[in-house]
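Quick one - first record:
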Amino acid sequence: MSTPMSSHTPSHTPSAETSPPTAAEQWADRADLLQNALSTEFGGRFGILFGSRSGSHHGGRLRNTAPLRLSQVAAFNYWWLAHAVEVRVDAAERSGSTGPLRAAQKTYAGIRSRNHGSLFNHYFDDMGWLGLAALRLFDALPTVAGEPGDRYLIDAQALWLHLVDRGWNDAGGPSLAWRTQQLDYKNAPSNGAFALLSARLFRRTRQQRYLDYAERALHFLETTLVDADTGLVADGLNRTGDHTLDLDWRFSYNQGLYIGALIEAFDRTAEPALIERALQTARTTIGTLAPSGVFTGENVSFDSHGGGDIGLFKGIFVRSLERLIEALAAVSGEGLRMPAGFLTVSTDLLWQNLTPPRFLANDTWTTPAAPTTFLATQLSAVLAVEARARFEARVADTR
């Protein structure tokens, strides 16, 4: 049963004796409220309690919908839950609390348990996301060999090796397939997540094979799926077996993955052209898919398809956009205005439509929650608010 959110008092509630909270404090509190809502509205009955700035959270087991829908009880969305692991690590990094890490570990263990004890499934993009989540846990936990953090690095490496062994081939150009049943179908989700996973494994291990594949996956994206004039990323190649590009499938998370892969390459090389290309893609994505300040469709009618995978897409883009803003600020600050403006406007609109005490999100951030909210949709909101909290904390640090 959900804990009433109204019983929790944000840690920065102003009083007559205190000044109003700063933007950094305000968005940190809002991120806590979203983390708490994720737990209380989606948490399973066997969750473990952990503390936060704004109250208590249930632990790692998460349902597919809020409120519970019997038709969704058995649904297992492996890659959604990988993002649930990541948002808990976001909370731990922001707050310094170990509670969110316990929830992240429990969610991660639950993925493996529900997957019959295995890390692997038939979708190579799914496994890339889980590898990235495992690396986040590795970074956040002790790294002494044999201790909790070390096993997550081992998992990430095992997932990476499985992707190379089972999914990497030369059809359509050296690249990673989408799933085991379509080894000649290559898309941005699989290759984008794989490029990120490879780059981050190289950063942590310095093993050359990871760098080689990071560069090869990014090369495939840039030479096959990215429009050189606009920077916009097509979804995939040869989905229908006729070697055509899915140019009309324009999704925000594909753009976010490409931006993220470029930033990883920039962090390695300090090559300015990489950041310029990332900024071009961000500008085109915002101008094309979110001219009003929020993503409102992405080729899908949310009246009939709300709550599916697409619910997560915009949060993934916003996470990458915040990383781009950080990189731009560190280099010169040029080009910051548009991406920073979009980040603030879109998350402001999102927050305005998150109604207390439940703080549930809609697929469209300018609209209050529908009667049923899917976990993917809520995770997208948590990703975005955590990104805004990081942005505001960094702005505060530069003043």
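second record:
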Amino acid sequence: MVRPEVTQPVADQLALRADGLHKKFGAVTALAGVSFSIRTGEFVTLLGPSGCGKSTILRILAGIETPTRGAVAIGGKVVNDTERRILVQPERRDLSMVFQSYAVWPHMSVAANVAFPLRYRKVPRDQRRSRVTEALRAVRMEEYVDRYPHQLSGGQQQRVAVARSIVGHPALLLLDEPLSNLDARLREDMRVELKRLHLELGLTMLYVTHDQSEALAMSDRILVMDHGLVLQEGTPEEVYRSPESLTVARFLGVKNIVSGRVSGDSVVEALGGSLPATLAEPMAPGSEVAVAIRPDGFALTDEGSSRPSVSGEIQLAQFLGGAYEHEIDVGGTMVIAQSPQRLGARGDTVALSVDRDAVIAFPADESTS
């Protein structure tokens, strides 16, 4: 592709700005006032469970849906503004979209599928040919130019869909769970390919998924959503290590939520011991808390160690490939611990230290919200 390489977002250039997006479908509120922006060259992910409103945002940006209230600007051009009654049609928005279902036309060759947006815009034939070649080369599909979709695997069809989406050099690329129909290995391969394209071509991408691993691996920034709201935004490291609510912690894979009590500055009583912890907000000693502990925060305690620890009996140990996952009964509470090494066999009693950075205490009332 003949485009400048952009490996970092351009801080002073906004590719997208969404202000106060609301959307209702009858009595159902899909979006309850969502605002965010994306810098040119940035990879941003909307992460959340089904029904949280993330795909509705994409459809509004693409012009497939209209917001009940709010405004959208793409590349500095306002395409939606309910107050000023501005509504730019989808075909006049400088963006492309990759769907979950690939949406490649079965009666067209790979080349014809990729060329379609250029034909629609009446790009001259010689330019179409060179840009199709560049797009297919970018997704490593140039040798399949004359094949038809029925001759391609699912992963290859998705590459064709991506090539079609980038051939017009859009200001913004929208991706709506594009990997969910692929098997595990193809998902991983395509995840790497999408990130490579983002870096090599300087694409500005807004990606929608409910898969935490996809969001953490690919994104410059993640917006965690639920019930039509953005609960938290930040880098993958920020949202993973410092969730601002119990809901975000749960959605990012914190499987251990236990009851506890604040006993001092950055210390909670939980699991029958004193654990170092980060308090999500200032809380007085004696306050009841819901303690979130990441599974990777546990480690075997060396004999004679002075580090705070808890003891429990291993109920189950599973090998996951890159790590072991253990179910451990700690005083009647089952916790999940992940470790690069096996901590022991079923029935073994183990003493575990807990990393302070893996423990966050939230007000107890959050556990019921």
